[in-house]
Amino acid sequence: MKQQSVTPILELQGVSFRYPDGSVGLDSCSLSIERGSRLVVLGANGAGKTTLFLHLNGILRPQSGTVLYSGAPLDYGRQRLHELRSRIGLVFQNPDSQLFSASVREDVSFGPLNLGLEKQAVRERVEEALQAVGLTDYADKPVHNLSFGQKKRACIAGVLAMRPEVMVLDEPTAGLDVAMQLGLTQILERLHSEGMTIIIATHDIDFAYQWGDSTAILAKGNCAATWETPHIANSLEQFASHGLGVPRVAELHNLLVDGKVLERGKSLPRSHGELLRAIASLVE
User: Fold this and answer.
1) What is the DSSP letter of 30?
2) What is the mean pLDDT of the chain?
3) Distant-in-sequence, close-in-space partners of 183: CB < 8 Å, separation ≥ 6
4) C-alpha–C-alpha distance, residues 284 and 123, integer Å
5) 223 occurs within a structural domain
6) pTM of the model
7) Do the beta carbons of residue 102 and residue 152 sit within 8 Å?
8) Residues 35 and 46: beta-carbon distance below 8 Å
9) Residue 256 maps to a domain
10) Are 40 and 69 part of one and the same domain?
11) Spatial distance between the Cα atoms of 88 and 281, rounded to a whole number of angstroms
């Protein structure tokens, strides 16, 4: 049996970046991202999350340190960057920063057309992407007439049409109601099940705990800590020391274990639904 490669799909090695006004974007930031994983990046406003993401597909270039893709340092030549951005898709926090065409179909078509694909191949990619995010019926609708949640899905469709290996999303659930958040999560789950590496920045600690395989905390431009997400429950005090709060499910589970309501050592619930099922099983 062929051994699976352990080379990270993306890696930052001591990356630093300052903006022209002198403010710190990243400060000796090191982070390794496994192929096919779900990484959640947490941090206060100004911690460097967006700056980190802009380095992942070469929009920003490190002033020191190195960004690697599949084990090789990024090549910042025009053609190589074009190829890189077809493999690493970035979805911005504000969809109006990303949507600029008259209709949804035109916007989703933009990336594949820039790849120089034949019209039939572009049409196939666009229809596939629109179907994936549930916007097929909105293909010819003006972009400015979409709801905020629909705009976010249109942005994801535009990235999907490039058929990337990695999708990077900056605050994807911000501004969405509960139903929209659930729909978006289902889209991301499906993409991950198909092998895509997904990286998300969020302020939602509970979403991070439920969804991520691993969690990274940024503070003042530095990667201050990383966890395999289920292990956060065993180090809540350390996690809380970063000032971002703690996952409520993990906190409640630990209290129930301390109170001998639940047994220690069993699988840790990652969502309120899982915790409720664990409690319900005690009276069955």
Assistant:
1) E
2) 90
3) 134, 149, 153
4) 53
5) yes
6) 0.90
7) no
8) no
9) yes
10) yes
11) 43
For residues 212 and 214, what is the distance between their CA atoms, to the nearest angstrom? 5
Token match 């084990």: residue? 71
Q: Are residues 87 and 139 in the same domain?
A: yes
CB 30 within 8 A of CB 14: yes
Domain that holds residue 264: 247-284
The secondary structure of residue 103, as a DSSP letter, is B
Token pair for residue 51? 């700056």
17 lies in the same domain as 75: yes
pLDDT digits (tens, 9 = 90+) for 32-53: 999 999 999 999 999 999 999 9
Q: Coil, strand or helix: which one is 125?
A: helix
CATH number at residue 61: 3.40.50.300
Collapsing DSSP to helix, strand or coil, 153 comes out as: helix
In whole angstroms, how large is the CA radius of gyration of the chain? 20
CA distance 146 to 138: 9
Residue with tokens 């096919």: 36
Q: How many Cβ atoms are within 10 Å of 12's Cβ, its own excluded? A: 22
- Amino acid (1-letter code) at residue 61: R
Specify whether the CB–CB gap between 71 and 77 falls below 8 A: no
| Rounded mean pLDDT, 150-162 | 91
What mean pLDDT is predicted for residues 184-189? 88
Number of domains in the chain: 2
As a dihedral over the C-alpha atoms of residue 91, residue 96, residue 98, residue 104, rounded to 10 degrees, the angle is 100
Distance (Å, whole) CA 169 – CA 191: 13
* Residue 25 main-chain phi, psi, to 5 deg: -95, -55
